Prior knowledge:
Elements lengths: L1 E4 L5 H11 L4 E4 L8 H4 L9 E3 L5 E3 L1 H11 L12 H26 L11 H23 L12 H12 L11 H11 L2 H9 L8
Parallel strand pairs: 1-2
Antiparallel strand pairs: 1-3, 3-4
Amino acid sequence: MKLYSMSGTCALSVNIALEWIGQPYELELLPRGDNRKPAYLAVNPTGQVPTVVLDDGTVLTQAAAILTWLVDVHPGAALGATSSQPLERFELAQALSYLTDDTHGAFGPFFGPARFLDEEDLSGALKKKSLERVALQMKALNDKLGDQPYMLKNGRSVADAYLYVMTRWANYLPDGIRPFPKLAGFRVRMENDPAVQRALVAQKLAPVGG
């Protein structure tokens, strides 16, 4: 199994999940911009990360789908619901959808304003509005987490790997993660996890703390 990633992206979530599972994998960390070069586009024509290539050549894309697949093929790792618990599967799917669509999506205009408008002089206002939406998402996630150690009430799941990435990105907010103490505590707990630490080293990233 080979994981294609870029440092600082949501592909970190898949790296964390693989470390939790203990699944052997090869990591290819793409330099910025190499995801748009022919060699990578031949693997994933969208140019996005993460991409997982299985030993038989099967290509898996989209973080939420890859994380769900990992839950299904490694049930012993207990990183999500089992097929015998439809409501738990729904809760995991709901959490991943919220994180990848609503929360990650709120960052979109901040990271890539040129994708949303042609007037460069408006990019500052767009990025400001984007972070306002991000702050609303972070508040909702902070309230949902409450006093739970993990996002889902039945324990640690692949959704936590993705939530961790979002808490790292929260540092782009004017006040960082400080207004969201539950998320700050969650981020510290995650960074005390040896598997998360291994993934950060592999991704050439530093812990960010609470």
